[in-house]
Amino acid sequence: MVATMIDGISEALRIGVGFLWTAAWAIIMGLTITSLVQVYVSKERMAQVLGDGDLSGLTKATAFGAASSGCSFGAVAIGKGLFKKGAHAVNFLAFMFASTNLIVELGLMILILLGWEFLVAELLGGLILIAVMAVIVHLTLPENLFDEVRETLNERDHEAGVTEDPTCGMEGKDEYTLTTDGGETLKFCSEGCMETYRQEMSSRGGWRDELLSWGGWYKVGNQYRKEWSMIWKDVIAGFLISGFVIVFVPQWVWNTLFIQGDGLLVTAENAIMGVAIAVISFVGSMGNVPFAVALWGGGISFAGVIAFVYADLITIPVLNVYRKYYGWKVMLYILGVFFVTMAFTGFLMELLFDALGIVPDLAGGETATEQTYFELNYTFYLNLIAFALSGFLLYVYRRGLGAPGQYRDPVCGMRTDDSEPAATHDGETYYFCSQTCKETFVEDPDEYATGHPMVMEGHDH
């Protein structure tokens, strides 16, 4: 008995770690692309343009969400900031849907672990989710309730001294505080966001120029580290849980929860049950993708699996955050709208894919226990490249290459310090964030020389 249990645990770990190894390069590449978008795609005045609940506002909310990826909790926190500042309810909810369903890293992970059919269902379904949710909210929205909650939320945060991080919109903390040149005190949710703000304030160059400097890559490395800090627990938990579910959950459990057979009622029940399982799974963000692999391997229908993937915004821990932010009534309203939207969209996706004849079929494919995960194949080489890229970004961040310092680069405006490249002109020493900026200065010093090295004194930013 003990030996059987040990064998089962070993197999569960082999599958879970094997899934993680298979998807590692996709996660890293996706987070790198996300970091580049987060750093170089401006999200200024986001709340102002999301104030109207019309099609234009909904479209902008979707675009902003897709460019502002993060974990479920991060999406909820940013959504709260947008709501407080006046974003229409349908738009901040659409923002959360997009930032958890239409993101690069999630798409790559679904493609690797579940296949292209699920990727298409995720992307197309993500847009349908937002459209269905918008219709339901416009038909059922208790306007007075949301207005009262917004007012109460602002008053409560004001009385508690809560300030939003100007970088990401999440709640600022006292330990991450700086004072601007104009005397304004800002609070940030983390050291990473504070560093991002410093970089944004110190840089005036375009994105092409910045990517040719250490300062630009420092910003990307900083954002990359922030992205990982938000999702790593969910990712690891999701992969490990999936291995144990595959090994230890008997088939009769899935057959009991999910009705087998054909027909609209079967598809609808599977979609509803997929969302219900997601609510109690406690696994959000990208961690629910490997869990979905376990469901798919258990014979759950396409509708049930894709509905499960959609439902990371209504897990019990996330619902508790809604309750803390908005109260019980709004939390239950969001739960109801999201549950119906996710189950209906999963149901619709299976009907559509069945009509097109592209519902995937596991018959004849290798099961998770039959697969060999660690081989000298394309996954191995892609992971080597991805790990090297990850190491480079973390090295740039940890070494502080191009990080804000006490001097301002006269060429690009990046803050730097006296350990960086330097040049002398008319008896004054100037410091640069990169060799490229130094060479630009040397070619035409009169264009950039200010007569002094622009020492930034009085503040630590």
Strand and helix layout:
Elements: H1 2-40, H2 46-49, H3 55-66, H4 72-84, H5 89-101, H6 104-113, H7 116-140, H8 143-159, E1 173-179, E2 185-188, H9 191-202, H10 207-210, H11 214-248, H12 251-257, H13 264-281, H14 288-297, H15 302-310, H16 316-326, H17 328-356, H18 378-399, E3 407-408, E4 415-416, E5 422-425, E6 428-431, H19 435-443, H20 445-448
Antiparallel strand pairs: 1-2, 3-4, 5-6
Give a description of the structure:
This protein is mainly alpha-helical. The protein has 2 domains: 2-399, no CATH class; 407-448, no CATH class. The chain has 20 helices and 6 strands. Strands 1-2 form a two-stranded antiparallel sheet. Strands 3-4 form a two-stranded antiparallel ribbon. A two-stranded antiparallel ribbon has the order 5-6. A hairpin with a 6-residue loop joins β3 (407-408) and β4. The longest helix has 39 residues, at 2-40.
Features:
2 domains, two-stranded antiparallel ribbon, 20 helices, globular
Structure described in brief:
By secondary structure, the chain is mainly alpha-helical.
From N to C, what is the helix and strand string? HHHHHHHHEEHHHHHHHHHHEEEEHH
Count of DSSP-assigned helices:
20
Shape: globular
- Structural class by SSE content: mainly alpha
| Residue share in β-strands | under 5%
Taking all Cα atoms into account, the compactness measure Rg is 25 Å
- The main sheet orders its strands as 1-2
Please bin the fraction of helical residues.
Answer: 55-70%
Low-confidence stretches: 456-461
Largest sheet: 2 strands, antiparallel
Q: Tell me the number of strands.
A: 6
Give the N-to-C terminal Cα separation. 61 Å
User: Mean pLDDT, as a whole number?
Assistant: 81
Q: In the residues, how many domains can be counted?
A: 2
